[in-house]
Amino acid sequence: MSIAALAQETGIAKDTLRVWERRYGFPQPVRNVRGQRMYPAQQVVRLRHVRRLLDQGLRPGQVLTLSAEDLARAVERQPPSGEPEPAVIELLKRHDDNALRQELRARLLRDGLRQFVTRAAPAMLAAVGNGWARGEVEVFEEHHFSTQLDTLLREAMMQLPAANSGPRVLLTTLPGEPHTLGLLLTLALLRLEGAACIWLGAQTPESQIVAGASAFRAQVVALSFSEYVDPGAVRRGVSQLRLRLPPDIELWCGGRSAARLKRPPAGVAIFSDLDQLAQRLQGRPAAKAD
Questions:
Q1: Which residues are in the HTH merR-type domain (predicted)?
Q2: Whole-angstrom Cα distance, residue 40 to residue 267?
């Protein structure tokens, strides 16, 4: 399959796959009769194992250099995740769209938006992701769950009052990071904390982040990095952006790959979870009046 098909099948961005290939020699393409670079289908299984170990907190350099056999053994040695989400997985596998939507809404009503965003949603995402890594959940099922969760969060945020007096926070991802669900959870929490949020979505060019921060008079730029982004790329990207942003605009980063940075670049704040983010936001000055 092509690298685009491999990225679609595994949920790992093409740029990340290319970085892994250059740095670790995997995934490894072969040439077809036309000389085109193609990836054997069996590499999907190996990438499933890689993704599961990354979800458990291991670094790419620890797992991508393992042989296929050692990688499979490492997955078997991982402790059970203890995911208490059998109902969600069952509904997802039954392809019962209405029942899944009702279950997610019931959990949101039971927990409230804050608890749902900081506890329930991450637990469900981990359960579905690990189910995919074990081969129990199909890619289309994982995408369907993510879409349902995305829709639910957006509907819930529509019910929140407008926040025009809190700190202005611009949210996006850098090019090469297409995943936005973690960023959407961040958006929901920031809205609950009274922040005035500007949502740019995924893969905004660096120059446009700087332009957007200036146009919206943002006090903070918040970026999200999933576990599939190489930490080296995270460091380079945020370092370059930090140099281009005015010094009075804070740069906040979250997500698994950001959390793997042992020494974040100067002037960059790293958050390992949403609770830390909420604590940082409290006490920040409000946005200046237009």
A1: 1-58
A2: 43
